[in-house]
């Protein structure tokens, strides 16, 4: 009797010890799952890296190109309104392409202007915040307008006729699903892109008067298409430094209704709007 009591006490203790260990293990697992989940939540697939690297470091560690994207090119490849089938063989070569009039039929060409976007962002008042949290960047270039919000606040003055002489250029990503859905009422996915092309759920707007974007490289995951909807613009492309001996810089003019495709990850690029013109373009990626 006494022995069984001891034994059961011992057993009990043993059990207590192992259940304690089990308890710790469960806690550890729960913590592990929790942190994995938090990490997964904070991981934004739109970002190229989990940890953002400063631009300077990115410039230093950029892989050396084979230069096939620029060799023997003295101008972009210019086509008409290519079909999906004909576009396919050019789609991933990183040669600069201009498809004349390929987006001429987009209603956005008539409808998009500064006020269209101002109204859109007034209608969806959380969109600015949503863009911010989704990493949808705003680019002020040399305009001195620090945010999209201040751009919309200032634009009526900037755009009024008396001071039309002020030149400005801005761009921003649209991530907010409501804003995107409304924008996409006025243009389709470019018809020439391959059916299986991966496209991000964000599209950029670039607009300005009499100015443009200074030379830079983009740190994005895919190739880029841009639909020139209003105004004419000159593109300047420069091969990356390791290809400067075998390739040359090029420049070309795009007109409203043209689609431009540039691998902005390997071509340094800048744009200048034709003096005295307002320019508006929609841009996104494919891969
Ligand atoms: C270009 O091609 C697309 C698809 O075939 C067509 O819908 C569009 O109307 C064409 N645009 C022009 C300007 O011909």
Automatic annotation (TrEMBL):
SUPFAM superfamilies: Clavaminate synthase-like (SSF51197)
Topological type in the membrane: Single-pass type II membrane protein
Domain of life: Eukaryota
Subcellular location: Cytoplasm; Golgi apparatus membrane
Family matches, as Pfam families: Cupin_8 (PF13621)
Alphabetical keyword list: Cytoplasm, Golgi apparatus, Membrane, Signal-anchor, Transmembrane, Transmembrane helix
InterPro entries in alphabetical order: BRAP, Cupin_8
Positions of transmembrane segments: 21-43
A GO term from the CC aspect: Golgi membrane
Record carries keyword Transmembrane helix: yes
Stretches assigned to the Cupin-like domain: 86-242
PANTHER family xrefs: BOMBESIN RECEPTOR-ACTIVATED PROTEIN C6ORF89
Name of the protein in question: Cupin-like domain-containing protein
Protein source organism: Ignelater luminosus
